[in-house]
Amino acid sequence: MAGDFLATVNLKKLDLNLLVVFDTVYATRNISRAAEQLALSQPAVSNALSRLRELLGDPLFVRARRGVEPTTRATQIAGAVREALQMIGQQLAPAELDLATYKRHFRILLADVFEPIVMPPLLRIITDRAAQVTVEVVGVFGSDFVRQIREGLLDLAVYAFPPVVQDIVSETLGESDLVLVARRGHPQIAGPLDVATWRALPHIVLVPEVRNAVNASTNIAAQRMDRREVYAVPRVGAMPPIIERTDLVGLMPRWYFREIARNFDLVSHELPAAVPNQPCCISWHAKNNADPGHVWLRETLSAAFRAHLQAGATVESIDVGRRRLSRRA
Q: What whole-number distance in Å separates Cα of residue 81 and Cα of residue 93?
C-alpha cells in the first residue's frame, strides 16, 4: 500500500516532512493542534500543506466547523502515508527505546472502566522518565475504532472484545466477571440476591450504543433475568455516584468495583444466575507489531491491568481464608 502511493509521487520533489505534516493534520483534523504537536507555527503547517497540495494536485483538506476535513484523495492516501512513515521510522529507530529522548504522541481508545486501572502506572512513567511522550484518550461512545486504527487515527484500543479482522492484532488481558452494585443498606436487598429481587430493583444501565458492544445484556437475557431499566448512561463511570445516592443498582466488572469502592459507600452482590465472563482485550494494527514505542506502550498497559487483576485475586483469597477461619471459630 505504501509502495503504491510512493510510486505515484515524484520523490525528487517530495520532502518527507510534508508527509509528517499531512499525517498529523489528518489525525487531528485541526491545523492549530497539528502545529502544536509538531512544534511548528500555523503558517509553517499551512505552507507545508500548500506544497503537498501542489505536488499531488488535490486540496487534501477543506475547512470545517471545528477545523478541517480530508478530501476523498486525502482519505485514500492517509493509510499509505502513515504506513510509509512508520516503515521508515522502524528502520531508522534504535534497537532499544530510550524513553529520555523518545518523542511521540499516542492516541488510545479506552473504555472508561480501564482508565483508573491502566493510566496511573503509565502516566507515572511518562512524568518521571519520558518527558516528550504525550497520550490522548479517545472515548468509546459511537466509535468505529477498527477503521480509526486502520487509518492511523488510533494507535490502539483497550476494549471489551477483540475485533475479528485480519489486519488487527488483539491480545487478551484477562476476563471480567460482573457484580451487581448497590448502596450500602439498600432497603430491597436483605440477603443473597434472587431473580425476583433482581427484577424488582430499579437498574441504571448503559445506553444501547455502548451496551450492544459487549455481551453482558445478551447473557443476562439468556438467563431470563428481565430488569427494570430506569436510567441509561454512556459510561460505567457515571454509575457509582448515582447508585450511592439512590435506590438504583447497576452492573459493573468486579475488578472495577474494587477500584471505585474506596471512594463510594457501595457494596457488591453476586448475580442470581451464572453469566459468562467478558474478555478484556488490547488491539492494534499489525503494522505496529515491531514498532519499539508501540511495543513499550502495549506492554506497559497490559502489565498494569494484569497486576491489578492479580492484586485483586490475592485480596479475595485472603478474605475467603478469613471467612473460613471465622466460621471455624
A: 18
Please answer whether residues 236 and 175 qualify as being in contact, where contact means their C-beta atoms are separated by less than 8 angstroms. Answer: no
SS3 state of residue 164: coil
Q: How far apart are CA 177 and CA 66, in angstroms?
A: 40
For the entire predicted model, the pTM comes to 0.67
Spatial separation of the C-alpha atoms in residues 116 and 321, rounded to whole Å: 28
Q: How many CB atoms lie within 10 A of CB 212?
A: 11
Q: Give every residue of the chain whose pLDDT is below 50, as ranges.
A: 1-3, 5, 7, 315, 317-329
How many angstroms separate the CA atoms of 12 and 30, rounded?
Answer: 28
Identify the helix (H) or strand (E) that includes residue 125.
helix 115-129
Q: Which residue shows C-alpha cell 440476591?
A: 193
Angle between helices 16-28 and 31-38 (to 10 degrees): 130
